[in-house]
Structures are given as C-alpha cells and as structure tokens.
Amino acid sequence: MASNAVVAGPTAKRVAENVAKWRKARGLQQRDLSAKLTETGRPMLPTVISKIERGERRIDVDDLMALSHALDVSPLALLLPTAGGPDVPIDLTEGVSVAGRIAWSWAD
User: Fold this and answer.
1) In this predicted structure, what is the pLDDT of residue 53?
2) Cα gap 78→60, rounded to integer Å
3) Which of 6, 19, 77, 96 has the most crowded CB, counting CB atoms within 10 A?
C-alpha cells in the first residue's frame, strides 16, 4: 500500500538545522524561543521546537515567518545556508541544485 507521507527535502532539512543554529547563536533555550513565539501569536511548546530542530516536524509558511521574527532573522536565513562560498551548490529540491550566489539572488 502506498504511503501519503511527505518526505522532507533538502530545504526542510536546512530550515531545521538553521532554526537550531540561529536559536543557539541568539543564546536562547528552546523554552525561550517558545516564549517568543507565544508573543508573536504563534505558540509552540518547547517539545515542538525540539521536533522541528530534529526534522521530525515540518513547518508551514506561518511557522517560518513566526520563527524568523522570534529569532530576528530574515526568512531567507532559515531557508538558505548562510555559510559557504558563492559557488558552493545548494540543493533546493531533490532534483534542483544551484550555486549559492544564484540561490540567494533568486530568493532575494
């Protein structure tokens, strides 16, 4: 029997990694980020943030905007890598990979 489960692609995995990276860079615990998200009107329990960071819970665009606001970063900083050179390939989907400068230029 076929499964309807959506498999996380490279961008979803990168967002999970970037949420954790930016949270730690801001010196926030998961409970601190949870409190900030509650202030934005998009409450998430610390356990939900943990699942997001481990790639066990997908986020929608409203989550993305709330997380970027709570972390004080552009949504692009969650969607794209912030390290690496301009020619380092970035996987946008399983079948599309472009140079970092192209991805940032396109997204911007």
Assistant:
1) 97
2) 13
3) 19
In angstroms, how far is the first alpha carbon of the chain from the final one?
41
Q: Which residues contact 84 (CB under 8 A, 6 or more apart)?
A: 90, 100
| CA–CA distance, 77 with 20 (Å, rounded to integer) | 12
Can you list the alpha helix ranges (DSSP code H) found in 1-108?
10-25, 30-40, 46-53, 61-71, 75-79, 100-107
Residue 60: C-alpha distances to residues 84, 98, 105 (Å): 26, 23, 23
Amino acid at 75: P
Residue among 58, 73, 63 nearest 14 (CA): 58
Burial of 50 (0-12, 13-18, 19+ CB in 10 A): middle
Q: How many CB atoms lie within 10 A of CB 56?
A: 11
